[in-house]
Amino acid sequence: MSFRRFIQQAEDNGDLVTINRSVDTTYELANVAHALEGRPVLFNSILGYPGWRVCAGPCSDRRYFAMDLGLPVDQLPIHLARAIAHPKLPPLVEQAPCQEVILKEFDLNDLPILLHLPQDGGHYVASNVVITEDPDLGRNMCYHRLMRLDGKRFAARIVERRGTHTAVSKTAGDLPVAICIGVSLAVHLAASMSPPPDVDELSVAQALAPTPLVKCITNDLQVPADAEIVLEGRITKQLVHEGPFMDLTETMDIVRDQPVIEIDLITHRRDPIYHALLPGGLEHKLLMGMPKEPTILAEVNKVTRCTGAVITPGGASWLHAVVQIDKQGPEDGRLAIEAAFNGHGSLKHVWVVDSDIDIYNPAEVEWAMATRFQANSDLVKLDSQPGSSLDPSGRHAAGQKSRTDKLGFDCTIPWGADKSKFQKARYGAVQLSDYT
What does pTM read for this prediction? Predict the structure, then answer.
């Protein structure tokens, strides 16, 4: 469903928090959204921006994705894996809500772009998906944070040797770009998934939920028809300082020389709703981590029966995972650990548990470690492995892959043991309304 249809459903379900008091985009809105983190929040009055509303937190809980896609929470990784394996080409429409208003004359300062923290390098767009076209590989959709420079330009953090960077390097002049703000949760998931280069992320979005597209006005790119805002422009060869900015680990990222994006045209829906994503917050974490769970699931299923995988927010939704298996042999715990590291290369620590453990409950995972794990036999330690550049404790050198040491914890019941010794006794269920 569209971004605003999700907001309506969240309101109907009682999940939406509505703020009618006027709020400032400099620090205040981010602070209020952070205080309400985990809930979608709709700000109906933005100081200095009449006609605009801002929504924060639509992607801050797994159950919102499940609600949007009509799935149980524990089926999300399986559904994501199926969408990557079987993408569907989206339909193209002639007219779209995202082009209800067309602005040939504009000023980026008229958009309610947030200044999140006093340490930030400027006002940042963090919720946008970016669509480009690689000359060889075709369409690509991903995320790039954008620091507003003036009324027409952004500085974009474009990670080296990935899709957009590769496409820019193949292009002699400017690379056309479409920046979409306020897209469906399915589009957000597809943009986060990093499928193989020949897989179109917008086709993955269509496999998750209907995602009609419309052609841009100033270039040939196609964008989600239901987006709230689309900025059409070009990635140039000009470089400027970008940053600092809070990263996934809630630490401040450094200043780099990054490309300038020049905006040529803005289109948006009537009564537009701007999506404000808090850097380092639950939305940032879930959109980074959750789309990596299908790849872990797939790799572990190659060595044993994997019944679940979750990348945990306590590990910055990037560095830690819990994997649930239905153990088939004595070595399955160790094999699952190694496969999980193959499934997500940035993973630093992984816990493997049996299928009776709720992997979404940290207390149950800790209980499994307390009662089923022995360090001398169940710990896997891997020294100096390729790691994540986001880990401040890793070993980083310019132009080289970051290195880290990794640990895996086999918290499954020992093979051949009497399982009854390792299982919780259960109290019987009662109907409390009979007693109150």
Answer: 0.88
